[in-house]
Write a structure and sequence with these properties.
Strand order of the largest sheet: 2-1-3-4-5-13
Number of domains: 2
Structural class: alpha/beta
CATH class of the largest domain: Alpha Beta
Helix content: 40-55%
Number of helices: 11
Order of helices and strands: HEHEHEHEEHEHEHEHEHEHEEEEH
Bound molecules: alpha-L-rhamnopyranose
């Protein structure tokens, strides 16, 4: 078979691109989570493995520190750089502290995206939000307000004080409160660091400091379980409603026992799947992250990047007595 000069030139350009991009036969995605042992991230891991299976050429390294700290994540980023992964997909404990390590990764040709909890814009190529930030902020307040027709005091139990995702939701919630929920009074915001023991302590502290508290809003799957257990153990079911963002599989018992009326979340399996798909496509050069572009994410669909190369997935979904049983079997 004789190849024309033109065909040979095209073939060599293609080989060249492949070399400069990634080893499409052994592409590794480092899925770096806030901390290990968190059911939310275990579900995202499942989604990442599903994506890898579908792609065929991709390997997932699921990793994270034992405690949700930036220091732990920085160490892991450096180790992923040494391992020469193709892409790092991070849910960060601190948007700024991890940035230099991520920038170093990018300078070595590693693609970097953030998902769930973002990092400063220059330290990643795109950010994948689970849902619209304003909508999440409004949802977490509405979940409490729906069961407080006369209004009253509520407090927020968050994750790490440096977590960009929770902080943006809390900011959005504070913004919407006076206008849409004038009878709801936010009296405190405390941080449990996505650690069960610490979240339990701060939940107890809230009950002590605010005897008229009507609801604890925990926009973290770890904090919400701890708060509901504290309210249950304190015999305050019916007096203090616990709500926020919860994994149905972990939280069903607190809807069943009445410590909570309703919670919300999005599909964490889809989130991990989407982060992995995007990482893969950036690494092999199949898709590019640029403001305004629409990116496809396999069977999950499409997202559109905004001016900051960020995009949001689906609206939060509410779980209550009627549907939590069904969803508790999925995530
Ligand atoms: C915890 C983590 C995670 C957040 C969920 C809702 O598992 O803080 O980042 O998205 O809660």
């Amino acid at each position: 078979m004789k190849l024309s000069i033109k065909a040979l030139a095209i073939a060599s350009v293609a080989i060249g691109l492949m070399g400069a991009g990634a080893h499409a036969d052994d592409l590794t995605v480092g899925l770096l989570v806030k901390s290990l042992g968190n059911g939310f991230f275990d579900a995202a891991h499942k989604g990442a493995d599903n994506a890898a299976k579908e792609l065929g050429d991709t390997k997932v390294i699921y990793t994270g520190p034992t405690k949700a700290t930036a220091e732990g994540q920085i160490e892991i980023i450096n180790s992923l750089i040494d391992q020469k992964v193709g892409c790092i997909a991070i849910s960060a404990n601190d948007p700024d502290a991890v940035a230099p390590a991520l920038e170093k990764a990018m300078s070595r040709g590693i693609k970097v995206i953030s998902w769930d909890s973002g990092v400063t814009e220059k330290a990643r190529m795109l950010h994948l939000n689970p849902s619209d930030t304003g909508l999440i902020g409004e949802t977490i307040i509405k979940l409490a307000a729906d069961y407080l027709p006369d209004g009253g005091e509520v407090a927020i139990l968050s994750a790490a004080s440096t977590a960009a995702n929770q902080n943006s939701w809390i900011d959005a919630a504070k913004k919407i409160l006076p206008e849409k929920f004038p009878k709801i009074k936010l009296v405190d915001v405390v941080y449990g660091d996505d650690d069960s023991a610490k979240s339990t302590d701060v939940a107890k502290g809230l009950l002590k400091a605010h005897p008229n508290l009507k609801a604890i809003i925990a926009p973290t799957t770890v904090g919400v379980v701890a708060a509901a257990q504290v309210v249950t153990d304190a015999g305050l079911i019916g007096k203090v409603n616990v709500t926020g963002l919860a994994l149905p599989s972990e939280f069903k018992k607190f809807i069943d026992n009445g410590a909570s009326q309703a919670v919300a979340l999005w599909n964490p399996i889809d989130l991990g799947y989407s982060a992995t798909m995007l990482c893969h496509d950036l690494t092999v050069g199949k898709q590019e992250a640029k403001p305004g572009v629409e990116l496809s994410i396999g069977k999950v669909g499409k997202i559109k990047l905004d001016d900051h190369n960020a995009a949001a997935m689906a609206a939060p979904f509410e779980f209550n007595k009627k549907n939590i049983e069904e969803f508790s079997k999925i995530y």
